[in-house]
């Protein structure tokens, strides 16, 4: 099997910008793109299947199963002077180095077919920060695009940090296809989904794309994530206390023969 894209409908979009967010560190990009899809009521128009996705099926409601996939959604901007959007997310990233290159290549080729000239990839980077508001940093293959991102609220990224996976490869390969590209990365501890950072990324995206996004709904996601994290911390403390008690108890039972 080779990777393929199944088109549900053919579209003619107005100078579309592609925004992609796959599962990764903190699930930041995926959470942000899914929220955009819901808020804009974007519609599915294509699906990408690949043998480089995990080798299992996903079980849904009623016992239905399907292969892992990536989905392309579209949103037509009601303002005729502004860009339409293509929003891309998936169940997983590719599982091998070759698969990551193949996935990025197919995404870029399909984007070109749809008339995309600008791609925004999203993801996370690991950082422990004491800041109340997490940073969203940006890199780009185009100086003017980078300036627009920084003006929209992103910060410049430190030099030398590698960007791995389909996010980084999309950015790197886009240049050879004469597509302008930028990457937004949100700082996160990375140990669990982090919608708090996704919310800040959405602020930057909405400013850059010049669209109104109601971010109030993200507060529920943030609260849910905080509750899960608190339960994890409580469970960890109980486990540590139990382990310490067992060690002390077992130590008292030991006898020595000399």
Topology as H/E string?
EEHEEEEEHEEHEHEHH
**Unreliable spans:** none
Main beta-sheet annotation: 9 strands, mixed
As laid out across the biggest beta sheet, the strand order is 1-3-6-7-2-8-11-9-10
Please render the helix and strand layout as text:
Layout: E1 4-7, E2 17-21, H1 28-40, E3 43-49, E4 58-59, E5 65-66, E6 70-75, E7 85-90, H2 97-113, E8 118-126, E9 136-140, H3 143-151, E10 155-156, H4 165-174, E11 180-188, H5 195-209, H6 218-253
Parallel strand pairs: 2-7, 2-8, 8-11, 9-10
Antiparallel strand pairs: 1-3, 3-6, 4-5, 6-7, 9-11
Helix pairs in contact: 1-5, 2-4, 5-6
Describe the structure.
- The model has no long low-confidence stretch (mean pLDDT 88).
- α1 packs across α5 (195-209) and α5 (195-209) runs antiparallel to α6 (218-253).
- It contains six helices and eleven strands.
- Strands 1-3-6-7-2-8-11-9-10 form a nine-stranded mixed β-sheet, with helices on both faces. Strands 4-5 form a two-stranded antiparallel ribbon.
- The chain is globular, with a radius of gyration of 22 Å.
- Helix content is 39%, strand content 22%.
- The chain has helices at residues 28-40, 97-113, 143-151, 165-174, 195-209, 218-253; strands at 4-7, 17-21, 43-49, 58-59, 65-66, 70-75, 85-90, 118-126, 136-140, 155-156, 180-188.
- The longest helix has 36 residues, at 218-253.
- The N and C termini lie far apart (69 Å).
- β4 (58-59) and β5 (65-66) form a beta hairpin.
- It folds into two domains: 4-215, 3-Layer(aba) Sandwich (Rossmann fold), CATH 3.40.50.10900; 217-258.
- It has 258 residues and is of the alpha/beta class.
